[in-house]
Write a structure and sequence with these properties.
Helix 6 links the parallel strand 8 and strand 9. The longest helix is centred in the middle third of the chain and has 20 residues. Helices cover 41% and strands 20% of the residues. The chain contains 11 helices and 9 strands. The protein folds into 2 domains: 219 residues, Thymidylate Synthase, Chain A, CATH 3.30.572.10; 76 residues. The radius of gyration is 19 Å and the shape is globular. Strands 1, 2, 3, 6, 7, 8 and 9 form a 7-stranded mixed sheet that branches. A two-stranded antiparallel ribbon has the order 4-5. The protein is α+β, with helices and mostly antiparallel strands. InterPro entries: Thymidate_synth/dCMP_Mease, Thymidate_synth/dCMP_Mease_dom, Thymidate_synth/dCMP_Mease_sf, Thymidylate_synthase. Keywords: Methyltransferase, Transferase. This is thymidylate synthase.
Length: 314
């Protein structure tokens, strides 16, 4: 069993990737050879330290796009393939069978049930969402890796425990931590409490050989300074969530009605997320500089600098 207790996603990745490269057991799954740890328990003590500060491993655009795809409740592959083209490999007739969105925010809106349960009974042990279903084993291309999400409200703090049957340590783990801790913070704001810790339990935690060199290069960067993401505003975030989902769609589709930098400024937290989304399709250095200079919180500037640097390298 691998036990990891760290304060940031970068620190978690340092421990996990180093362990898999040095002590992982060899396996030959269908997606390619890999090093595996059977049984892993990860505690992220600061769930807002959910984004890597590494130039090499900062997935802010794909992570934000995936989180918003979940929130939209759709299983259509187009919106997520815009940020993560690999999803196209898992689609069947334009849809992703194992998509989390319909399971969390679809017609049943299971997250709303969790919020109601926590409001009704603070010490509930039943605020659980089942993501994986037995019938998923017959899916053609994509089986959910997440089995359950359990929300625990204790002593005024909201903890989240995610259980995974399988987890890609280099590509999947950072995205899962981002999306699930963002959902954790949404629920905390709805219930009127602060976020506690994030717990991540994995049956098969693995590193594919195809990512081993990249993982080693990340480790060579050393330890990064802890920098938490800005806190979500107090109160029910439903209005901000609806707005940012709509903004993402307009920007992604190139809709003329999509907001520009000049349209932003009323809601700092959500506006900064919109600025990140505006930076994704931006190809000019001057445009990226204008976006970088417009953020309400300097937390995001490093990611725009990284994107600018990549275009200069190309």
């Amino acid at each position: 069993m691998l036990l990891v207790e760290e304060d940031s996603v970068d620190d978690v990745l340092q421990v996990v990737l180093n362990h898999l490269l040095r002590a992982g057991s060899r396996i030959e799954p269908s997606k390619g050879p890999a090093s595996e740890q059977v049984g892993a328990a990860i505690e992220l003590r600061n769930p807002r330290a959910r984004l890597s500060r590494s130039h090499r491993r900062s997935p802010i655009f794909s992570a934000l796009g995936e989180w918003l795809w979940y929130l939209s409740g759709t299983d259509e592959v187009g919106p997520i393939a815009h940020y993560i083209p690999m999803y196209l490999k898992f689609a069947v007739e334009g849809r992703v069978e194992g998509a989390y969105g319909p399971r969390l925010f679809g017609a049943d809106d299971r997250l709303a049930e969790v919020i109601k349960r926590l409001r009704d009974k603070q010490d509930s042990r039943q605020a659980v969402i089942q993501v994986f279903a037995q019938s998923d084993l017959s899916n053609q291309r994509d089986i959910p890796c997440t089995t359950t999400l359990q929300f625990l409200l204790r002593d005024g703090l909201l903890h989240l425990a995610a259980t995974m049957r399988s987890n890609d340590a280099y590509r999947g783990l950072p995205h899962d931590i981002f999306a699930f801790t963002m959902i954790q913070e949404m629920v905390a704001r709805n219930v009127g409490v602060e976020v506690g810790t994030y717990l991540h339990f994995v049956g098969s935690l693995h590193l594919y050989d195809s990512d081993a060199d990249a993982a080693a290069a990340f480790l060579d960067e050393g330890w990064h300074n802890l920098k938490p993401m800005p806190a979500m505003p107090d109160g029910d975030p439903a209005g901000g969530v609806r707005w940012i989902i709509e903004v993402e769609e307009r920007i992604r589709l190139g809709d003329p009605s999509a907001p520009t930098l000049a349209d932003l400024g009323e809601h700092p937290y959500w506006d900064d997320l919109a600025r990140v989304l505006l930076a994704f399709p931006e190809k000019s250095g001057s445009g990226l500089r204008r976006i970088r200079e417009s953020f309400d919180d300097p937390f995001y500037e490093i990611y725009i600098n990284d994107r600018h640097a990549r275009f200069e390298e190309d």
